[in-house]
Amino acid sequence: MRADRLLSILLLLQNRGRMTSRELAEQLEVSERTIFRDMEALSASGIPLYAERGWGGGWVLPEGYRSQLTGLKIDEIRSLLLAHGSGMMRDLGWREAFDAALLKLLAALPPSLRRDAEAVRQRIHVDGAGWYGPAEEVSCLPVVQEAVWEERQLAVRYGRGDEVVEREIGPLGLVAKGNTWYLIGLVDGQIRTYRVSRIRSAIIRPESFERPADFDLARYWEQSTADFKSRLPSYLVTLQADASTLALLREEHFVKIRETRPAADGLTELTADFQTAEYALRIIPGYGGGLRVLEPEELRASLLRLAEAIRQMYGH
């Protein structure tokens, strides 16, 4: 709709300062001729647009021209920004609407609050995908969060296996992964990840720390997650499954289906990664006759031994 496009042009110019007709046309997926007509309409409605000629020119709004947003407190703005970057809006089919609302929000903020909005994006990242489990005890989270906002050094006692170690951390940001919180911080010049539920105690130090100029929290977490997945063990199994069993198998959190191909009798042949043979032996029997192992042979033999042990246990 043209009204939506006109508003988008206004908000884009408020956020970015200067844009050419080509940049606007590419952003809004229309022709440059359409942009020129839209600019005439905006000017006729009283919007003080003007064009700067020459190299580095473009469409510009007067300095200080901005729509006003009232009634929102800074904590309310922070809470709205936390949903950006997560998959939740995309899963609900609301991502485009949310992006449009976020654009309006940022355009209406004064410069000081817009800088604070960027600080929120760099300090808390919500990753809503997978890894769900029971809620964890995170009694130290308020202290950790305060240290992140204040950019002050954090002294923690951290549970690692059966021991508790002490660490001085420069807290760069927090990541929520399902029900689990992670602290990303600097330790001896290296960026490390700590599970907040394993922090036994936390004290904020008066000293600040130097934040790496090129650090991006979402990009670091994406790379860290990819590195973790690449180090996971792999155990590939070739199976046959009926349609209903295949649908259930796709919902297994720690089973990755690599490929599928049609098989006889309406079945599907597939290759799945169970990470370990032990995990495959624990999961596959639960599907009964709906799932048949073709390879590897040692897993088939293990399943036969398991079935014989069960038969003997209940045979009497």
For this entry, give a set of tags.
single chain; 316 residues; alpha+beta; Arc Repressor Mutant, subunit A; SH3 type barrels; 6-stranded mixed beta sheet; 4-stranded antiparallel beta sheet; 12 helices; 42% helix; 27% strand; HTH_11; Transcriptional regulator; DeoR_HTH; transcription; WH_DNA-bd_sf
Largest sheet: 6 strands, mixed
- What is the radius of gyration? 27 Å
Integer average pLDDT:
81
Distance between the termini: 74 Å
What is the CATH topology descriptor of the largest domain? SH3 type barrels
Tally of DSSP β-strands? 13
Helical percentage:
40-55%
Q: How many domain modules?
A: 4
Runs in which pLDDT lies below 50 for 5 or more consecutive residues are none
How would the global form be characterised? flat
What portion of the residues fall into strands of 2 or more residues? 25-35%
Spell the H/E element sequence: HEHHEEHHHHEHEEEEEHEHEEHEH
What's the tally of helices?
12
Q: What is the name of the CATH architecture of the largest domain?
A: Roll
CATH class of the largest domain reads Mainly Beta
Domain HTH deoR-type: 2-60
InterPro entries: CBASS_pafABC_assoc_protein (IPR051534), DeoR_HTH (IPR001034), HTH_11 (IPR013196), PafC-like (IPR028349), WCX_dom (IPR057727), WH-like_DNA-bd_sf (IPR036388), WH_DNA-bd_sf (IPR036390), WYL_dom (IPR026881)
Protein name: Transcriptional regulator
GO molecular function: DNA-binding transcription factor activity
